[in-house]
Structures are given as C-alpha cells and as structure tokens.
Design brief:
The protein is an alpha+beta fold and 217 residues long. The protein has helices at residues 2-38, 94-107, 141-149, 152-166; strands at 65-74, 81-90, 123-129, 133-138, 181-186.
Amino acid sequence: MNRAWRRAMLRRTLLWVWAMATVALVACVGLLAREMMRGGVAPLAFMRTEPKAATVRTEPAAPMANKEITLYFADAEAKMLAPESAHIEAGDSTVENCRKALDALIHGPRDILTPILPSSTRIRGLYMLEGGQLVVDFSIEFTRELKKARSASLESLMVYGVVDTLANDALRGAKEGGVANVRFLVEGTAPHESFPAHLDLSGPIKPDSRWIVGGGA
C-alpha cells in the first residue's frame, strides 16, 4: 500500500506540474499576442506564406534590322512620282513596317522632290485583311489636302504615291504577306463617293507604276 500510495502521489505531482506549465505557457502566448497587436502586427502573420510568383516565359523579340526602302514623292514639277530611298528599323510585321514607311512619307522628302502628304497628317489606324489588303485610316488632313489639289493628276500622285510605297516588297515581314492593294479610310469611314473628284476611293487601290518616272506607259 505504501508503494502504491507513493506512485499515486508522484503521478499527481507530475500532472500538477504539467498543468501549471501549460497554464504558464498559455499565459505567455496571450501576453505575446497582446503585445504584437499593440504593435500593429497580426499574431498569426508569421504563419502566412506568400504565394510564389508564377514563372512566365516570354519569347525574345525578333531583332530589328535596318532596311532600305523606297518612298515615292512627286517630282519637282509635281507631274510624276519619283523614288527616294530611306532606311527604317524593319521587323517581322508588315503592318508595322508600313506604318514606319507612312511616317517617312508624311515627314517628306530630303531633296528637291515634292511632298505628297501634309506634315499634319496622322495615321489613325492600320491593319491587314486577307488577300494582302492593307487598310489605312487617315486623319481629316488627308481629305483637306485632296480638296486643295483639284486636279486628277495631283490626286493620283497622292494616292498612288502611298499605294506604290506600301506595296514595295521591302516592307514585307516574316509574320505577314506583302501588300497587294490599299483601302483608304478617312476618320474611320470611306471617302465620299463624290470626293475626291477624279478618283474612286470606295474600293481598294492597286499599285500602278505608270505614275512613276520611267515606270511604263
């Protein structure tokens, strides 16, 4: 009995010590949590793990190449189209290459040639359709310049200067085909059927070398 009593007392003593230690631990945790909350830190913040950012693989952009292209401006007498070489940073997109060529046309010639587009012209949109049809949406300045022309010759120089420039194979990109014809829009709509006075711009326009000096009869 004496031995059994001692064992029971030892067990009770151990249980009491364990209980007191548990109470002390809980009290410490409570005090720590209260201090963390006072400091503006959420007690369970240290248990949160930030999700790892997903690894996104991106294909390297194709290198740009300095390419020589041909721009067509009116000659000094504004009777025919004459070529002028230019250089652009060309890429795989035919549309973007054409946009750079149009920017160069708007900027104007270097030498004695005559501009065919006013410097205030803006390109509102540019996109390729099936069959190589490039749609170019000009700002209203394009129409205003055509109104000033008031002759079939000057209207043709403007229109075919743009078309013959964009149809050049040097602008062809690896991702798209070349330009077969160009459809003109002004402020998002086709030019009015009665304007320009001498050209029908209601449909796509094909390149025509007859307007280029030495281009044919």
